[in-house]
Amino acid sequence: MFNRKFLNMLVSLMVLTSLLFGGSIKATAAPAGPVDETKVPHYFGPNPNWALSPLRQADVVVDLTGGDGTGAAAQAIVDPQTGAITAITITNPGSGYTIAPTVGITGIGIDAAATAVIDTSGVVTAITVDAVACSLV
After folding, report:
1. Can you tell me the distance from the alpha carbon of 130 to that of 41, in angstroms, rounded to the nearest whole number?
2. Are 39 and 32 in contact (CB under 8 A)?
3. Distance between CA 90 and CA 54 in Å, rounded?
4. Pairing of strands 85-95, 113-118
5. I need a surface site. Which of 22, 23, 95, 131 has the fewest CB within 10 A?
């Protein structure tokens, strides 16, 4: 078993050896100046960065239920800056609707509301956004 004095001498010798034979510290990642954007992150500027990125749900789910029909589907378009729903696009108009289906919107935001419109043939022709519901950021 090594004693404490021997271990201290060994560590000191290792440190000295590394300093004498190539143990110099190079500052290759240091910025050239306070505005060198290649090395210094631009936290509050025009470029997005992970530190200030809002944690939003990528997609908002739109469900069309009721109305005695089937197959209608839609997708919400969300503004990436505000998290507000800007429009709802119909991806499948469905069929057999006698009354307009109820539009359910789920996601990270609150108070979103929309109304579906059907035509005389029983398909969903439009969805009007009544309340845009900004997401919680």
Report:
1. 40
2. yes
3. 27
4. unpaired
5. 22
Query: Going by C-beta distance under 8 Å and a sequence separation of 6 or more, which residues neighbour residue 120?
Result: none
Is 103:110 a contact under the CB 8 Å cutoff?
no
Decide if 37 contacts 64 (C-beta within 8 A): no
Question: What is the tens place of the pLDDT at every residue in 89-122?
Answer: 999 999 999 999 999 988 767 778 899 999 999 9
Residue 30 tokens, joined: 């240091």
Gap between the Cα atoms of 96 and 73, Å rounded = 14
In tens, the pLDDT along 11-50 reads 888 887 877 776 555 555 665 666 666 655 555 655 555 5
CA separation, residue 71 to residues 30, 96, 106, 131 (Å): 58, 9, 19, 24
Side chain identity at 49, as an amino acid letter?
A: N
Q: Which of 86, 136, 79 is nearest to 110 (CA)?
A: 136
